[in-house]
Amino acid sequence: MWNYETRKPLAVLKGMMDCVKLLQFSPDGRFLAGVGQNNTLIIWNTQDAAPIHTRVTETPFTVLSWGDLLTHVNPKHPSYTLILGNQYQIFMNRLEFDISSM
Questions:
Q1: Which of 10, 58, 61, 95 has the fewest CB atoms below 10 angstroms from its CB?
Q2: How far is 59 from 54, CA to CA, in rounded Å?
Q3: How confident is the model at residue 24 (pLDDT cuts 50, 70, 90)?
C-alpha cells in the first residue's frame, strides 16, 4: 500500500501468491479485500497490513464488493458486509467485532 500524497510505501500486503484479479477497500478504508488468480481471497487490516481472513475456493470469484457499514448495533465497532460472486453463486459475508473470540 502506498500513501497517495507522499508517494511513499505504507505496508507490504503478503499472502497473494499469484496475479491479483480484484481489489477493493471497505467503505471506511479499514480493510482491503483481494482475489487472486489462484482462487485465493484475502482480507487485510490496512492499519497493520495483517491478513485477517484467507480462503481458497474451487471456483474463482469474479465479483467483489463491500456493502454499507452497519453501525446501529455497535457504533464503535461497525459490522461489514462483503459480497463475493462467481458464475454460479453470490455470497454475502459479514465481518463483525466479537470480543469473545479474541
A1: 58
A2: 15
A3: very high
CA distance 36 to 62: 10
What are the extents of the domains in the chain? 2-101
Length, in residues, of the chain: 102
Averaged pLDDT, 77-90: 92
CATH of domain 2-101: 2.40.10.360
- What single string gives the DSSP state of each residue in 29-80? SSEEEEEETTSEEEEEETTT--EEEEEE-SS---EEEE---B-SS-TTS-BE
82, burial (CB in 10 Å: exposed 0-12, middle 13-18, buried 19+): buried
